[in-house]
Amino acid sequence: MISRFTRRQIVAFLIVSILGVGVMAGQYIRLPQQLGWGRYELGVELPGSGGLYPKAAVTYRGQEVGTVRSLSLRDGGVVAYLSIDDDVTIPRKVSVEVRSASAIGEQYVDFVPSRGADATAAWGEGDIVPAERATVPVTTANLLESVNATLQSVPQDSLRTTVDEAGTAFSGRGDDLGRLLDSGMELQAAAGDDLAATTGLLESLQQVLGTQKQVEGQIRSYAGDLDKVSGTLAEHDKELSGVITHGAPAAQQVDALARDLRLPLPQLLTDLSLTAPVLKTYLPGIRHLLIVLPGAIEAHYSNGPADRLDDELPEANLSFKTGVNSPPVCTTGFADAGKHRSPKDTSPAPLRDGYCKVPHDDQRVVRGARNNPCPNDPNRYSATAAGCGLVFQRRAEPVAGEGAASYDPESGQLLAPSGDFFLVDDLAAGLVPASWQELLTQLAGAP
């Protein structure tokens, strides 16, 4: 009769045996997976087996998620049926790659998710991933054929020359090569320390390269135009050399012109800055004058008969009509009405504010200055800009003792703080003008 202690030992042994068999069946033999429990089947179309075999591993994001159950032939390729864990969701935006785990083979299937892959759109039971999403490694036969073709295409004599020259180049350079390798290792270590920054740079580089791809046409066009310009410059090398050789005298002339314009040009620009707003405001009237004036000049020349223009006393066809006070004469607004200036008086006459100053509806001098339409308001008439409500900047009057004057001893020109030019002959280097520009400056710059 079996004792109680022995029975307890047998029961404990049975329990340990059952647990051991269960662990072995679940963890090592993977009996539930072999029976298809907790798995779903997914097919992958491949252009070739790529050395893949049943029981090969299936990975997703570097983690093993299943195995290859079987492979079957199909028109134009192979279908690999995979057994995937139920708790693994593989999105549809993935690429399937058959890779080698080592140099001797050991292929496996790797699912590589694409950027922006959505887990809600996933592959399910019985789905087949199309062949356009799958790639297989190059077979050994194709690799050897490509290597052999490459070797056959290399000229033997050139290869010998290259090997000889390489031997000459690296002969006695062991220490230099060692330092180069050491520096390369240091550079690699530094790059590893800054891996995050390097990765960010590469990701940003994708955007930059994408932008360059978008403007590929413009870049190619620019490169082509630059090539044409370079070719044209090469064809005209002699002419360009002549320009560079003889360019110094031309540059000296330009420099002399700049020195001659150093004083009058600022004054001219200052005056233009004052007159430009006036011209801009009265531009419609100026445009109308330029349109009408040629016709008026042509009508003036038409007064004389064409066959009498070369005579010593040419004729003119005129028609005079006498009239008394029709329209009436206007003297209102003229301060010196009835007073005439002597013809012998050749001094500059002051500008007078003289025009017919009567109401607009008066019949006297209806085409006078008082009925000039304002450029800013066609319904308004005035003889002056102030009457039209226009105010223009005037040239500032010189103020005694304010600022400093600039004097050019070569030309004798004095630039006052007000911007006016004065010619001081007794301080100049010479009274005889050295050029026509200096002559005109002296004639126009006298106060």
TrEMBL record:
Record-annotated Mce/MlaD domain positions: 40-113
Organism: Nocardioides panzhihuensis
A Pfam short name: MlaD
One term under GO cellular component: extracellular region
Annotated NCBIfam families: Mtu_fam_mce
InterPro entries given in the database record: Mce, Mce/MlaD, Mce_C, MlaD_Phospholipid_Transporter
Domain Mammalian cell entry C-terminal: 125-290
Record's protein name: Phospholipid/cholesterol/gamma-HCH transport system substrate-binding protein
Family matches, as PANTHER family: INTERMEMBRANE PHOSPHOLIPID TRANSPORT SYSTEM BINDING PROTEIN MLAD-RELATED, MCE-FAMILY PROTEIN MCE3F
Region (Disordered): 333-355
Coiled coil: none
